Amino acid sequence: xxxxxxxxxxxxxxxxxxxxxxxxxxxxxxxxxxxxxxxxxxxxxxxxxxxxxxxxxxxxxxxxxxxxxxxxxxxxxxxxxxxxxxxxxxxxxxxxxxxxxxxxxxxxxxxxxxxxxxxxxxxxxxxxxxxxxxxxxxxxxxxxxxxxxxxxxxxxxxxxxxxxxxxxxxxxxxxxxxxxxxxxxxxxxxxxxxxxxxxxxxxxxxxxxxxxxxxxxxxxxxxxxxxxxxxxxxxxxxxxxxxxxxxxxxxxxxxxxxxxxxxxxxxxxxxxxxxxxxxxxxxxxxxxxxxxxxxxxxxxxxxxxxxxxxxxxxxxxxxxxxxxxxxxxxxxxxxxxxxxxxxxxxxxxxxxxxxxxxxxxxxx
Length: 364
Description:
Blueprint: H1 2-12, E1 21-26, E2 31-35, H2 43-50, H3 58-77, E3 80-81, E4 90-92, E5 98-100, E6 107-108, H4 128-131, H5 138-153, H6 161-165, H7 170-188, E7 232-233, H8 234-245, H9 256-260, H10 263-266, E8 269-271, E9 280-282, H11 287-291, H12 312-319, H13 334-338, E10 345-346
Parallel strand pairs: 7-8
Antiparallel strand pairs: 1-2, 1-10, 3-6, 4-5, 8-9
């Protein structure tokens, strides 16, 4: 698994929305991966520790899921399926931007559209088809919907691992997900409106085609000829997106393009601002600014409370560094050492000297 994560991270390359690989090295007892530092902890930790109701306000949840979307979209563009997306694997940086991490069970596809047949993942976040073996990138979008649901409600729609392990019929799973699981989210939203339609366009323009999932194939037009669009309650739009994404049939699940153009992201919205949220009217997501990390985060974590803050001395003690009472690790035979050949990586980085001046990067 550790070699798989190393190779996946090498294949993934550099992206602002994933925990990028910087170094890989080994000693006689350990294999090390050095990734981007994210001092804000994971989303589940922040949700539980910082908000009285144990949920993120919808505007903050939308900001996080915007960046999660961009991270997944990038991974899929290089033919990588994450397969273990969950709030614990979405880390926060000090400035409130996210990093997707934990690529231990990710898969690099040999070609777009390839299906994976081995079953692996965290059961509460696994798409139905993953229990029936063959699955593709649509499984990541199922997990995306589960994450959004959990950020907004504080719970997972499929809590019962036993139920999921039983390889339920599509009928039973549909009842489980579309029925009782969505009641919690629906109860938080006002009457869910019809999906926001594009404003009326001039006669010569071609309207976006409707897809099988009822989503517009492209975002609403924003030209000066468009009539003003009335904001819609953001929680109601979230309910619509989750309902669409949690389709038990992966062929009917919305694609990345359809998710991106869903009114949850593409329509002006309102929220109450309760429990520390940002109240008022929220514009549609500007995807170009989001890709460039130009959208300021609506939530900046208190890193002194984050669950990733550790004591350097504790780490050194666990590794047996500088402790004369720790036995020397057993010698490794040449045969054993061969198993870890190639476990090295060095990303060319700018080295910041103590005086604040940048030094030259180096590549091993």
